[in-house]
Amino acid sequence: MGIHKIQMPDVGEGITEAEIVEWNVKPGDVVKEDDVLAAVMTDKATVEIPCPTDGTVVEIKGEIGEMTAVGSVIIALEVEGDGNEAEIAAAEAKHATADTPPAKVEAAPATKLDPKAKAAMAPPKAAEALKPKGVPQNAPMGVPRAVGEKPLASPAVRKRAMDAGIKLAYVHGTGPAGRISHDDLDAYISGASVPVGVSRVTPNLRVDEIKVIGLRRKIAQRMQDAKQRIPHITYVEEVDVTELEKLREHLNANRKEHQPKLTILPFIMKAMVLALKDHPKLSSHYDDSADVLYQYGAAHIGMAAQTPGGLMVPVIRHAETLDVHGLALEAKRLADAARSGDITRDELTGSTITLSSLGRMGGVVSTPVINSPEVAIVGVNKVAVRPVWQDGAFIPRKIMNLSSSFDHRIVDGWDAAEFIQRIRSLLENPATLFMEG
Amino acid sequence: MKTLECNLLILGAGPGGYVAAIRAGQLGLDTIIVDGQAPGGTCLNVGCIPSKALIHAADEFEKATHNVGGNILGIKAGKPSLDLGKTIKWKDGIVDRLNKGVAGLLKKNKVKLLVGWGTMTDGKTCVVETKDGPVKVTAKNVILATGSEPVEIPSLPFGDKVICSTEALSLETVPKKLVVIGGGYIGLELGTAYAKMGADVTVVEALDTILSLYDAELTKPVTLSLKKLGVTILLGTKAKGLSQAGEGLVVEMPDGSEQTLAADKILVTVGRRAKTEGFGLEGLDLTMAGRFVAIGDRCQTSMTGVYAIGDLTGEPMLAHRAMAQGEMVAEIIAGENRTFDKVCIPAVCFTDPEIVTAGLSPDEAAALGYETKIGIFPFAANGRAMTMEAEQGFVRVVAREDNHLVLGIQAVGKGVSELSATFALALEMGACLEDIAGTVHAHPTQSEGFQEAALKALGHALHI
């Protein structure tokens, strides 16, 4: 009696590890040749591992869901005769010293693709039937020709195509430099090769390798972290800003020299400040590793700003202390500093809630990503004149959507809705923005 | 008037016309071909064939001259003499044999050859002035293949002293002083031949270069060889006319001064023009492309059922182009689906050394926006060339940088005209550099230079 070891098969395509998704045997089972022992999955397909020989399972290695390196032993069988233990040991020794790729197990060529994967990869049956003998199994595709480029083919191929009434411009050439061979023509005639695309525009095969560094990498990490850890709930509501816009226009038309021109954002910030008084939980930091929520009395509003290097979120500290003009001035100062690169680290940290706006590019709906460890972000969509049904008629109203995301671990949908509804009420009745309490 | 009806009427029995007729006959088309002279056209009667005969005779004579007083090969012989009249008779014999050959092929393929001047009266009808009187031919399809003729310089009308290439192929004696106007391939081929036969040859060219269709790299060995033969080349020089006394040619030199070149004969080879007049073509509704009949990729003209092939349809005015067109049109008329889809029409210049070109030159490829790889292999590094005292020249391969598809092949050297076959084949087959580099070429032959040039372009030539 010997031990026959079965390795994770080389499933090809440069795959170095595969996930064990199913064990069909357990130690002590008696197995016959071709029994399915296990199933492993790569990102391409599921592969069943058949039993190479009769024997008894003595050991299985690896849990379901575990990534296992190609070539590592996953099953040991007790078999008649010597087994292959010595062979594998030798191969492993060789691998260790010469750094050669792991030797393929005998079982590898016999691996069966799971029928589903096979069906997905196999060409349609109809095409198969049409294919004449001698045509390569893989339908030749070749490289498309550039616009205006003549198809390349020998005179004999050209004549055959002419006689068959085929424009070679539509035939894929698989030869060097895209030359069309007799086989390519056969494949085209049989329908095995798809005609060259109607647009006949060369696909742009250029790939630029761009290192993700600096601010971009930072953004990437933060976004990844936020989306991975925070279960977002996004709530979208429509706000009628007709009255607010009137007020804003009036204020801008009558502004004093020292007062900045107002956008809609300082009004929204003002509304947020007021709404936060009723919903203090939304101005906070959630330390999920310590299960602590730091709820701030202050409203430090992060203001997402586009800079040449990417997204930055400068912070308007103590927004609760500023009026709309103060908010506008501070927002402008920070945005300018962020764009010019003069912004300090302090000005970029400490926000307790974030406001995100793309201005005219704000779209209809967005799904803002929470600026972790905050628990809420208010997204502003564009203002547009839309027909609104009011008093038995459609009337044009200026409508703006707010798309806001909340950390659902802390904020329930109800809370989120109440918070946004409060903001909406304030914005739709702009006088209330200026009435404390 | 006698009336004949046929499916296909071909006007002109030059290489384009007679090939169309043979192919049409093979395909069972009821065909009549019309020509006023012996079949074979310019090519066979007063062009390619007779000029090559003369060039051969000149080469043989020059070889014999080299033996006088002994040469490097150790051969010593007496002074040779040349009886040009006899040479011309020999040449005429070849032409005659070929005329008869073409007539025989036409007959074999049941094509009716009608000798006489043909005039188209409409797109379907031609009246032919045969020696037995006029014959009216009506046809369903017509191929116009009237060819081309040498261009005359208005101030130098063809006459006793001023001759065109046709007369130059039938001179009784070698002129002592021959002035050739026009440094194109025809002038240089004939000029070289007469220089070898002992004439004192001067080439007058208005442009700054001889063989202006070729690049300087290709023409340099030819220029050197002409100088060695004692041929004077006057570039940037314009022919003005015969001198007062008629003893020579007045030319305007590049500096503006006038000079008289003594000449026994003045050969004018300043180009050829399509023969569009005298055949009634003016009365047809043919769209023209400049001085040529406009054709599409099936050689169809603007008139239904009327095709045009050969020199009548423009450059390159080469017999083999006309033949390929003729063959194709016959097949189209027989109902086959054809277009003129040739990758290249190779061209040969039978100077000494010869120049052969197929496909794109480096400049042409660049002008079309191709990034290219170019490989040049000099015959100086080729064993066979050395053994033939033919070390001047080279083979040059132009290929696409990205996929190595060969775009053009050129060569200059002794006897390289025969390489035109392999060059054209490579281009038609869509060869890449690796195809040529990977083909075993027989040793020792000049053709190895082709393989080496491809290897050179790939960066690993073996013998250089």
How many separate domains make up the residues of chain B?
A: 3
Largest interface: A-B, 14 and 16 residues
Tell me the CATH superfamily of the largest domain in chain A: Chloramphenicol acetyltransferase-like domain
- What is the chain-wise order of helices and strands of chain A? EEEEEEEEHEHHHHHEHHEEEEEEHEEEH
Bin the strand percentage of chain B.
25-35%
Helix content of chain A: 25-40%
Q: Strand count, sense and closure of the main sheet of chain A?
A: 6 strands, mixed
Give the C-level CATH assignment of the largest domain in chain A: Alpha Beta
* Assigned CATH architecture of the largest domain in chain A: 2-Layer Sandwich
DSSP helical segment count of chain B: 13
Low-confidence stretches of chain A: 98-142
Count of DSSP strands of chain B: 24
End-to-end gap of chain B: 71 Å
Question: Strands of the largest sheet of chain A, in order across it?
Answer: 10-19-18-17-13-16
CATH architectural type of the largest domain in chain B: 3-Layer(bba) Sandwich
Low-pLDDT segments of chain B: none
Class inferred from helices and paired strands of chain B: alpha/beta
Our count of domains of chain A comes out at: 3
Average pLDDT confidence of chain A is 82
Tell me, rounded to a whole number, the average pLDDT of chain B: 96
- The radius of gyration over CA of chain A amounts to 33 Å
